[in-house]
Design goal:
Layout: E1 2-6, H1 10-21, E2 28-31, E3 49-51, E4 63-67, H2 75-83, E5 88-92, H3 104-108, E6 111-113, E7 120-121, E8 124-127, H4 153-166, E9 168-169, E10 171-175, H5 185-195, E11 200-205, H6 215-223, E12 226-230, H7 234-237, H8 240-249, E13 254-256, E14 269-274, H9 282-288, E15 296-298, E16 301-303, H10 307-318, E17 330-331, H11 338-346, E18 355-363
Parallel strand pairs: 1-2, 1-4, 2-3, 4-5, 7-9, 8-10, 8-15, 10-11, 11-12, 12-13
Antiparallel strand pairs: 5-6, 14-18, 15-16, 16-17
Helix pairs in contact: 4-5, 5-6
Length: 382
């Protein structure tokens, strides 16, 4: 049986290193073509590296494909392998990196076999609250200009049951606003785990409330194997040692800035690529957008990114008129074929015409901000 690693970044290199430690042969690294990035010539030792399109020697039924990418970026590979009828596909669970494996059995338990008979949704986000305790200027989810609102448990459970019915969901992220502001965060965690028994569940937080959580909440997060992903803003950095101590003492796994391999830096900038004028070239904007795989769930609707389902907040605040059409999202209860829904979310949608293939970057600021529309809309044009 041949083993090929799908991925060419640090994630893939670390997977290769751990497989090699247990003398598991790796026959090659593979990746999809991306006009914005060149394929590395070398990743680990002298293992060959090539594009999927140029690598026609893969034997579909007797080769293991190991997905060594962050869940958000698995989609293009999944799409290719499904359409080309590959049989043995494994996703590497990032929790592997939380510890060093002493035996091959310990290592292999982090390789999740993907069954493509059921639509495989690699990534989904959802706001469980809309307000935040940091009020970042230009917040992409508009948390600094929205009304205080939380997701009710009954609605949350209903939507998540629909997701689980339609898809095999691999990675589910609870967002905000600041999700730890939800007064029933322990029940949110419990419901998520009861419905998504095998999914990776992550709470994305600025971390400032972790030292205010009661023991029952911390215990529930740990028991349900929920990961805390800390966005390292300046106020968080000032108390990060205390935050990490609490997480470690409660056996809660964590990420910082959602990445094991990137240098840990304080977040100093935000950016926007949103324009208030449509551009027919939404295809190119979609291809380069870092948020093009941020499948987002709100009120029974799912979209390829958060903008179509949250833009009403910006419209209401400033009296503007970003238009959202029925082609910009999918009603969960209307999905008959999950693969068709995933394919639609993989492509560009009408709302992509509001985005550009370049950005405006600005300094991160927090506090009581009377934010201007210019924090969300591009000021420059190409």
């Amino acid at each position: 049986m041949k083993n090929y690693i799908f991925g060419t970044g640090d994630f893939a290199k670390e997977v290769a290193r751990r497989l090699d430690y247990f003398n598991i042969n790796i026959d090659g690294f593979i990746n999809v073509k991306d006009k914005n990035k060149e394929l590395p010539k070398k990743i680990y030792k002298d293992i060959p590296v090539c594009y999927l399109d140029d690598f026609d020697t893969l034997e579909k039924n007797i080769s293991n494909i190991i997905l060594a990418k962050k869940p958000m970026f698995m989609g293009s590979g999944i799409d290719y392998f499904r359409k080309n009828k590959f049989k043995n596909i494994y996703a590497v669970n990032e929790e592997m990196f939380f510890e060093k494996q002493k035996t091959i059995e310990e290592l292999i338990k982090y390789f999740d076999k993907i069954d493509l008979k059921k639509p495989f949704l690699n990534y989904l986000e959802m706001n469980i609250v809309y307000q935040c305790n940091l009020n970042c200027k230009g917040c992409a989810h508009f948390s600094n200009i929205c009304e205080n609102k939380i997701v009710e448990l009954e609605k949350f459970e209903s939507d998540l049951n629909l997701v689980a019915k339609k898809f095999n969901l691999y990675n589910f992220r609870l967002l905000g606003g600041e999700p730890l502001l939800h007064p029933q965060i322990d029940r949110i965690v419990e419901i998520s785990r009861n419905i998504l028994k095998k999914s990776r569940i992550i709470i994305v937080t600025n971390g400032l409330m972790i030292d205010k959580l009661n023991e029952n909440v911390l215990k529930k997060i740990s028991e349900c194997n929920v990961i805390i992903s800390i966005s390292l803003y300046e106020p968080t950095y000032k108390k990060i040692d205390k935050i990490l101590s609490i997480l470690k003492n409660n056996n809660i796994n964590y990420l910082i800035n959602d990445d094991f391999f990137r240098k840990i830096d304080v977040i100093k900038t935000f950016h926007t690529r949103l324009s208030d004028v449509r551009n027919v070239d939404g295809y190119n904007a979609n291809k380069i957008c870092s948020g093009r795989f941020c499948r987002f769930l709100r009120d029974g609707k799912i979209s390829k990114c958060y903008y179509p389902l949250l833009i009403d907040i910006l419209n209401k605040k400033y009296g503007i008129n970003f238009q959202v059409t029925e082609d910009d999202y999918i009603e969960l209860d209307s999905i008959k074929n999950g693969w068709d829904a995933i394919e639609k979310m993989n492509g560009d949608i009408p709302f992509c015409e509001y985005c550009r293939d370049y950005i405006d970057e600005f300094e991160w600021k927090s506090g009581t901000i009377n934010d201007e529309l210019s924090s969300y809309i591009l000021k420059k044009t190409k």
